[in-house]
Structures are given as structure tokens and as C-alpha cells.
Design brief:
alpha/beta, D-Maltodextrin-Binding Protein, domain 2, globular
């Protein structure tokens, strides 16, 4: 949660690498190559020159990038790191083909869909000893009940981020996302599951409903608000610049990302509405057609370590499924920064049981319901 400090250190480190002739190579929008590797051979894949590599696709602002460099130095494996803005966009990339990802980090409901469609391969947990450090409550969950395909990466909650200098009183309900009170000052999340989900919560329906009438009612609530100019626009990763800069008053986004924004703008606050919200687990998986399987296992084991989880928690603001890391973090933070951790912010990162009691995990929906979501999202004009 001291991301600005981490960014400063990262910049200094990058400059040092540049001066020593080891600059980071830009590989295009949404991706970068973070090192050169050691040239060690790999029987499971690699570059044309024999260098070992692993191709990872995750979300924006979702890793302490110093971990990439550390992994490369320790293993000689080059990490080609890519990002996607949402689960739905990630699925589209996989569906269209032409990508060569080895490791992906989707959310629970998308993992269930990918398993159902036979797009993931079973993991060899003998190559991932740090899996033992993952708390049991993040294993055998509904999206991957047999612990065959995933290693949890982070967990968190969806809520409302708002600027306390622009909003009259604390937000407690999803109603604000559909009201004219702050028309033109709200950013709509560019994700059909979350956008329709907040409407389903507000209407009192099951967020995993397959009832077409209920889903259409939720859609209409969002569509009517959009038509009245309630939303200034929609976005995903754009939310950082918009909310940190005080450009809009309200946005729906994730707790961990709120903490990053709060570091830059302490006027921001976070609320999980009284009607309930989504809690999610993102997990590391290996695609069925991965070319660098051994390297993928090495990457997953490295990221699942206690040391990596502590660094990631501090940088990205999301709670760790690693039992040791989650318990150690407050003391680790104080040792790192010479000041106690703000426990109010910590409970936004790692929501306590009384908050999680009113939160629901998304489930993979039937094909006909997913088609309905997609059709309504297109109709909404997003």
C-alpha cells in the first residue's frame, strides 16, 4: 500500500539497468518483455535461440514488477508479461486465437468456463511446493472443486469508489449508480458481469440468476441511467487516472485498486453496498496449448511464495491467499516503512467475515445466459 515508494524504487532500478545496458524492451500495447534470460535450454518450449521463456497474461497494475526481474535473475527464464482489461476481453483473445500465453490469471467464474471448455491443463503440484502455503479456504471452491487446475493469486471485493470532496455523504447503497443525483459524475465499469451485477444486487436478485426477466430488468436499470446521462462514460484501467485526478466523483471498481488510488488521492473512500457485492478469487492457470509448461510451473511456484505474496500485497493492494503472508503483512509493513499499518485500509484489502457474509462469488453461467449478457451489453452500446 506504499505503491508510490515502490514506483520510485522501480524507476531508479530501471535507470540502473539502462545504464548497464540491460534496458527493458517494449513489446507493444498491453505487453512487455522484462528481461533477457540466461540462455538455459528447456525441453518444454522456449525461443528460437534456445532461451527459456514464459508468456503470462494478467490484469493491468496487478503485479510488483520487481518480482519479474527477480524471477528472471533466479531462473534465467524470460517473462513476456501481457495484460487484458477484463475476464471477458481475455476470453475474446483466447477465442480469436493468435496469442501464445502459457499462464493466465482469470477470475473464478471465468476459470469454471475455461475448465468446462477444456482450455486449461491440469497442474503438476509436485512442481509447485508453495501451493501448500495457500489457505484451505481458497481450495476446493465451486469454480475448481477438485484442486486440479489452479493456484490462487489474490482475492478481493467489488465496491464503490467515491471522492469525499465531491459526494455529499457516505455511500451505502448501489442506488447511487442509477440515480440522477450525481449525473455525469459517474464512471460505469466496462464489464457486463459487474455492471449488470450491481443492478441485480440493487434489485434484490441473485447475482447468479439465470432468469431472463430478472436479467433484462437489471439491464434496463443500467440502460435507463445511461440514457439519462448518469454515466460520463465507461472504463476499466482508465479508472486509476480518472479517480486519482478527481475527474469524476464515483466509480465501481475493486478494493485492491482502490488502495492504489487512495495512495495517490486520500480524498477517495470505498464502500461495499448494504445490498451486497461480489467477492472473487483470481487464480493462476496453465492453458491447454501452453508451449512452456515447465517454465509456467516455475513461475506459478515463485509467485505463490510468501515473499512474493508480501511484495504483491504491498504493491497491488489485494489480499493474499497465502496464509503466512496474510498473517505477516501488518508486521512486515511496519518493518518496511517504520510506521504501523492503517488497519482500516487493511480491512478494505482483506475484508473481514462480517463483510464477506453479504458478498457472493460469481458462478459460471449457462451458455444461453452468457449469450443474453453479451447481446444486452452490445445493445447497451458499450
Amino acid at each position: 500500500m506504499k505503491k508510490m515508494v515502490a514506483l520510485t524504487l522501480a524507476c531508479a532500478m530501471a535507470m540502473g539497468l539502462f545504464l548497464s545496458g540491460c534496458a527493458m524492451e517494449d513489446s507493444g500495447s498491453g505487453s512487455f518483455t522484462a528481461g533477457s534470460g540466461s540462455g538455459a535450454d528447456s525441453s518444454s518450449g522456449g525461443t528460437a535461440t534456445g532461451n527459456r521463456e514464459v508468456n503470462v497474461c494478467s490484469w493491468g497494475e496487478y503485479i510488483d514488477e520487481s518480482l519479474i526481474e527477480k524471477f528472471e535473475l533466479e531462473t534465467g527464464i524470460t517473462v513476456n508479461y501481457n495484460t487484458a482489461p477484463s475476464n471477458e476481453e481475455l476470453y475474446s483473445l483466447l477465442e480469436q486465437g493468435g496469442v501464445n500465453y502459457d499462464v493466465i490469471v482469470p477470475s473464478d467464474y471465468m476459470i469454471a468456463r475455461l475448465i468446462q471448455e477444456d482450455r486449461l491443463q491440469k497442474l503438476d503440484y509436485s512442481k509447485i511446493p508453495n501451493y501448500e502455503k495457500i489457505d484451505d479456504q481458497y481450495k476446493n471452491l465451486s469454480f475448481a472443486p477438485n484442486n486440479e487446475y489452479t493456484v490462487p493469486y489474490t482475492w478481493g471485493t467489488l465496491g464503490i469508489i467515491y471522492n469525499t470532496t465531491m459526494v455529499d455523504e457516505p455511500i451505502t447503497s448501489w442506488e447511487v449508480m442509477f440515480s440522477d443525483q450525481y449525473a455525469g459524475e459517474i464512471l460505469l465499469i466496462d464489464n457486463s458481469r459487474d455492471a449488470f451485477g450491481m443492478a441485480l444486487y440493487y434489485l434484490g436478485y441473485d447475482v447468479n440468476t439465470t432468469d431472463e426477466a430478472q436479467i433484462r430488468e437489471a439491464y434496463q436499470l443500467v440502460a435507463d441511467a445511461k440514457a439519462r446521462g448518469v454515466y460520463d462514460g465507461q472504463g476499466m484501467d482508465e479508472v486509476f487516472q480518472i479517480m486519482e485526478g478527481g475527474n469524476l466523483a464515483i466509480a465501481t471498481y475493486y478494493a485492491g485498486d482502490f488502495l492504489t488510488m487512495h495512495d495517490a488521492n486520500p480524498d477517495l473512500a470505498f464502500a461495499i453496498p448494504e445490498e451486497g457485492s461480489n467477492w472473487f478469487v483470481d487464480a493462476m492457470c496453465i492453458l491447454k496449448d501452453a508451449q512452456n509448461v515447465d517454465e509456467a510451473h516455475e513461475w506459478i511456484n515463485f509467485i505463490a511464495s510468501t515473499e512474493s505474496n508480501l511484495a504483491n500485497m504491498d504493491y497491488i493492494g489485494y489480499a493474499s491467499p497465502n496464509t503466512e503472508a496474510l498473517e505477516m503483512y501488518p508486521a512486515w509493513y511496519e518493518e518496511q516503512y517504520g510506521e504501523p499499518l492503517d488497519m482500516e485500509l487493511y480491512e478494505i484489502m482483506a475484508a473481514p467475515p462480517e463483510v464477506l457474509e453479504r458478498c457472493t462469488m460469481y458462478e459460471n453461467l449457462p451458455a444461453e445466459t452468457l449469450t443474453l449478457y453479451n447481446d444486452l451489453w452490445i445493445e447497451l452500446g458499450i
